[in-house]
Amino acid sequence: MAYKNFILVCAGTGCESSKAIEIYEALAREAEAQGVKNEVQVVKTGCFGFCEKGPIVKVLPQESFYVEVKPEDAKEIIAEQVVKGREVKRLLYKKDAKSVDTVKIEDIEFYQKQFRVVLRNCGVINPENIDEYVARDGYSGLERALFKMKPADVVNELKASGLRGRGGAGFPTWLKWDLTMKAPGDVRYVVCNADEGDPGAYMNRSTIEGDPHSLIEAMTICGYTIGARQGYIYIRAEYPLAIDRLKIAIKQAKEYGLLGTNILGSGVDFDLDIRLGAGAFVCGEETALLQSLEGKRGMPMPKPPFPAIQGLWKKPTVINNVETYVNVAVIMTKGAEWYSKIGTEKSKGTKTFALTGKIANSGLVEVPMGTKLRDIIYDIGGGIKGGKKFKGVQTGGPSGGIITSESLDEPITYESLTALGSMMGSGGMIIMDEDDCVVDIAKFYMAFCVDESCGKCAPCRIGTSQMHDLLDKITKGNGSEDDLLKLEKIGKAMTKASLCMLGGSAANPTLSTIRHFREEYLEHIRDRKCRAGKCKDLVVYSIDPVKCIGCHLCARKCPVPCIAGEPKKAHVIDQSKCIKCGECFKACKFGAVVKN
Amino acid sequence: MAKMTLEQLRRLREEKKQDLTRREVEGKEIQVIVGMGTCGIAAGAKQTFDAVVEAVNAAGLGNQVIIRQTGCMGLCYVEPTVEVVAPGMPTVIYGKMTRDFAKELVTKHLVEKKLLDDHIFDRPAADIMKN
Fold first, then answer.
1. In 3D, which of A128, A448, A164, A500 has the Cα closest to residue A307?
2. Which residues contact A590 (CB under 8 A, 6 or more apart)?
3. Distance between CA B49 and CA B98 in Å, rounded?
4. Are A428 and A352 a contacting pair, CB within 8 Å?
5. Coil vs helix vs strand at A94
6. A557: domain CATH number?
7. Which of B9, B19, B46 shows the shortest C-beta gap to A264?
8. How many structural domains does chain A have?
């Protein structure tokens, strides 16, 4: 009989690592065993975004939204839902652990304020089946470009849409394409930057995993527009699932004649290849990426000449990131007029963000530009984990800055984030609470930049390690107020003088934390105190002899061990041996362990 | 598959769209719910379900109608039972809906917006309506 149920199993990297593939296989096996193989279609899809509650399984048309599913649950899902037509209530999403009321998918707050354009197919189609993409109006944007539009029309369409690059600074996409199209020469290239390297960011990976054909379609449109016959997707080798899905998608597109020679009989040729990056952060910088693509060491080049004039192998090259291309596919399918209604005046469309850190609902979200940070963190993200106090949000990874609670009502646009001392970046959003120390965070990002600096230019090579040393000094309680001035001075010099944006933005986390949390820096320096208790050298644990009842629990938890004391008598910590792990503090039920 | 022409791509898209629109729920306002308790299945509810899918597609309503199953509706004496929820129409449970009536259900109830008087057996009981 016709399928009466469709079971969508999330097979993004997050859910896959918690056995989503086993769940998928178990569902298929159970459907066969219970004789309903022909009544239910089990589909592997891309990321639903609600990674906090993964693995996610969604059953249609009932819209049952099952969370934290285990392979053992497959039998019950098939027996109850497919055979008997009843939902498995215990697996349905509930607002919190205590609540018995299940929540319907349209009422889940996580999804209410989202608007999925880039992720429109993620969690809906099977990314390994081109037919499902085609059925969702896939490749109709390409069709429109090839048969109804001239290259200049495509550029005009993008101009009307207001699309700006999603990788960082927000350069108008149409202008990039236009410059490349008009650059002299007969060989041109299309390159996709899928080298997503910010700690905590995984939007591009999930987009490719869930909807690889969107990228292929958009790059082909780009090839037609600028007159390129070859494109490259530069993706980091750490994304094996995304690479696999891309390979499958490229193969299918070639078989269908959507890539290769004479695409759909239009006379246009375009081909795509994948190049794997070894995971250097600097290769996310476009000139360094192009060097790496050429087989050279990934180091940035001075600009100009811009890649639009002299890019890959010195030929005019369009280089955009994954999200930008996927937006192009949507614009070409739905039209610039539709697209330009989304977002704000200067920042059109939507933006995907990877919500991580101290947030209740970590996951992949997409919101229209102009959405307030507060809406993302509190409504979609469900607020801070464990009811702690919000401290700040780091956007743009190691190149961005911290945004504090005062700016939570700022609508997100390219301009507003830059004005706040951060940047759009590719879209990582790391939420911090009162237990995070800003100096420690600044040090973490600076250490990342020290590691990832390619060493070509002095401001970045020397500046990052100097700044790191200064931050390290402060976290150890040896800093001076003079060091703060030095940090600002070096930071400003790096911002101005570095060759590429890695160095040019490496100081951002430090500068923005100094700007917003100067008081906390001064506490480290003057009072040798870390209020979050993260800087171990500034923390001293001791036991209050009045409160201690001598239960010995702390001594048992101590990994060193450095806590001594007789039963039922007050215990003492040997400060010379203490490694400040805080286990005793967490273990004590009487508040006798004191953190200073 | 061999390389496609534009025509073939369009045909493929239309063909696959029907399959995929059945999965979509958003924007669909009409629901056809087939009772599939043991009694319903014994009376041919599975065949009815198939016939409804076919009839809905044939009428080009695939993007407006959710077709789903439910358990026994309690009217075991007139199985197969089918409940239809459509805006602007009273919610009705039809009984004795064997596969042969699927087409009539679609053309009359969903397209012409008229009830199939011979098949009306009950409105949903209060407890069903709540859920």
1. A500
2. A547, A548, A549, A551
3. 9
4. no
5. strand
6. 3.30.70.20
7. B9
8. 5
Backbone angles phi, psi at A572, to 5 degrees: -135, 140
Residue A462, in any domain of the structure:
yes
> What strand order describes the sheet that includes B92-94?
B65-70, B30-35, B82-85, B92-94, B120-122
Neighbours of A228 (CB within 10 A): 26
- Top CATH class of B25-130 equals alpha beta
Residues A552 and A500 in one domain: no
Q: Residue A525 has which token pair?
A: 């320096």
A419, A459 contact by CB (below 8 A): no
Residues of B in contact with A127 (CB under 8 A): none
In a domain, A116, yes or no: no
The answer to whether the beta carbons of residues A299 and A454 sit under 8 Å apart is yes
The three-state secondary structure class of A260 is: strand
Mutation for testing the A interface, residue in B10, B12, B13 having most A CBs under 10 Å? B13
CA distance A421 to A44: 41
- Ordered mean pLDDT values, 10 residues apiece, chain A (596 residues): 83 88 93 88 88 88 87 91 83 75 75 89 90 92 95 96 87 95 94 90 92 96 96 94 95 95 94 94 93 94 92 95 95 95 93 92 92 92 89 89 90 89 83 93 95 95 96 94 95 95 93 94 92 87 91 90 89 90 89 86
**Residue A117 in tokens:** 């354009």
Assess A345–B contact: CB distance below 8 Å, yes or no: no
Whole-angstrom distance, CA of residue A103 vs CA of residue A382: 15
Distance of CA A506 to the CA centre of its chain: 18
Count the neighbouring beta carbons within 10 Å of the beta carbon of residue A224: 23
Q: Give CA–CA dist B53/A379, Å, rounded.
A: 38
| Distance, CA of A44 to CA of A479 (rounded, Å) | 54
- A270 φ/ψ angles, rounded to the nearest 5 degrees: -160, 135
Contacts of A134 in chain B (CB under 8 A): 9, 12-13, 16
The parent domain of residue A461 ranges over 438-526
Q: Mutation test of the interface with chain B: which of A105, A121, A134, A251, choosing the one with the most B Cβ atoms within 10 A?
A: A134
Of A1, A256, A260, the CB nearest to B49: A1
- The pLDDT assigned to B1 comes to 57
Contacts of A458 (CB under 8 A, 6+ apart): none
Same domain for A210 and A282, yes or no, is yes
| Spatial contact of A50 and A56, defined as CB atoms under 8 Å apart | yes
ipTM score of the complex? 0.78
Residue A178 lies in a domain: yes
Pairing of strands B92-94, B120-122: antiparallel
Give dist(CA A88, CA A563) in Å, integer: 50
A99 plus A149 within the same structural domain:
no
Tokens at residue A446, please? 């600076």
Prediction pTM value: 0.88
The three-class DSSP label of residue A552 is coil
Q: Whose structure tokens read 């250490």?
A: A447
- State how far the Cα of A465 lies from the Cα of A282, in Å rounded to an integer: 16
Is A132 within 8 Å of B20 when comparing Cβ atoms?
Answer: yes
Give the CATH number, domain containing residue A501: 1.20.1440.230
Question: Min CA distance, A267 vs chain B (Å)?
Answer: 11
As a residue count, chain B comes to 131
Closest chain A residue to B53, measured at CA: A2
